[in-house]
Design goal:
Layout: H1 3-14, E1 19-20, H2 21-28, H3 33-43, E2 48-53, E3 56-61, H4 66-69, H5 81-93, E4 96-97, H6 98-105, H7 111-120, E5 123-128, E6 136-140, H8 142-147, H9 159-164, H10 170-178
Antiparallel strand pairs: 1-3, 2-3, 4-6, 5-6
Helix pairs in contact: 1-3, 5-7
Amino acid sequence: MTESERQVEAALFAAEGPMSEAEIVEVIGGPVREALHGLAARYQGHGIELVERGGRWHFQTAPDLAYLLRREKSEPRKLGRAAIETLAIIAYHEPVSRAEIEAIRGVTVAKGTVDTLLEAGWVRPAGRREGPGRPLLFATTPGFLTHFGLASRRDLPGIEDLRAAGLLDPVDLALEEALGAAPKEDDDADM
């Protein structure tokens, strides 16, 4: 393999996408046509091949091996507001029953909302509450923690974190102030 072929190979391998001949010349500084054709011949029959498509060169999996790398792609579903609110309630109040979720949200929770969270693997049944009707309880799963990058439920953001991030509804903040919520004490007052 010539030095020019090695340089072209390195440039194409490190590139974010296919490169034109002119772009490769900008990177390595010199004629590249002969090196490109030499590399294409060298890689022919290998698991990866150097190909030109639309005047742009790139490495690709050999067509006869592409089936090995083909994977089922699942389209991520976006959670609706009801599902996000339900998930937050479960995360902060677990274990919690459907009736408790409805009492906190102020509206009925559709069966599909909890089913969506169960299918996503973020919520699991967590037993039954002792009491009339023995309602099913829900809790979060290790998959929930992993997906949201949390080591434990203790890592969930608190009210001050949410306020600092601007994620609290201004109407809720105004209501809290109007009801005379206790002002936060100054940390320096204790010193």
